[in-house]
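Q: Hi! First time doing this. I have a protein sequence and I read that you can turn it into a structure. Is that right? Here it is:
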Amino acid sequence: MLFHTPKLPAEIRISHLNARLNEQRKKVAHTTASKFELLQLTQQLSKEARLRKKNNQKIYVLDFKGDTAASAVESLREEITLILATAKAGHDRVVVRLESPGGMVHGYGLAAAQLVRLRDAGFNLTICVDKVAASGGYMMACIANEIVSAPFAVVGSIGVVAQVPNFNRLLKEKHIDFELYTAGEFKRTVTMFGENTAEGKAKFEEELQQTHELFKHFVEKYRPQLNVEKVATGEHWYGKDALALNLVDKLQTSDEYLLGLLAQHDVYVIDTRRKPTLGEKLGLQAAQMADGLVPAVVNKVMETLSKASANVIQLRDPKL
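A: Yes, that's right. Below is the predicted 3D structure, encoded as structure tokens:
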């Protein structure tokens, strides 16, 4: 990693997508094709290689699969830093395969800010949405020069949501007092255990509206062709309807989009993976299960706590 030390050992891997695909094409051809067809394939691959060398344009592909906390931003920020340090701005291009239903405002705000770094540096940015880019996910997607959506991908949900249970009446029934001490009139607006006041609820709703306004202004900045007031209702749409509303620019899967680039461009996939532990290297199944189970349990607990927190406002579609 470059600027931030990861909690678990990690490494950035770069793979040449053209080489990977051509290797598979050769394997299939050696099994199914005639000698003449093999010769034609060899000539075609040589022609494509000369064309790529002539164009001399590289395309870097990143993946972002978002959870509620947008934890994938830790890898994204490092991958983008690497591109900014090595690629040619204004010449090379970046494609991000994005999948996210949204989540916490501060998490997705940081993730969106990372993509803004690419735009500000002069890179052409394309974001491909195969499944979902809603709420905080769409806040990331709207930064792109071009948004490519699969026909049935879920897009939009430009809204803000916050929910919190309140156990005050239950505590009173059990004769349990809950004491809360604050300094500052609105240090705490609504709580899980205290009795929420009308003033506190009104202030909390005001904060939601302020966040929504920031969200709308952000989308307007990067997609001026979009009628934000029309779509900023918290609703989401499937790809075809999203195209009609200017939420996206093209209907196509990421596979089809990238395949169309391979003949004339060198395409590189950059991803960050966690290095295997000693137990995993030795093939110990118990170690593999434990290493996978603990983070999953921790993430689930953190997600549950974040949903229950009174102070966490989310850019997330609760229906997804």
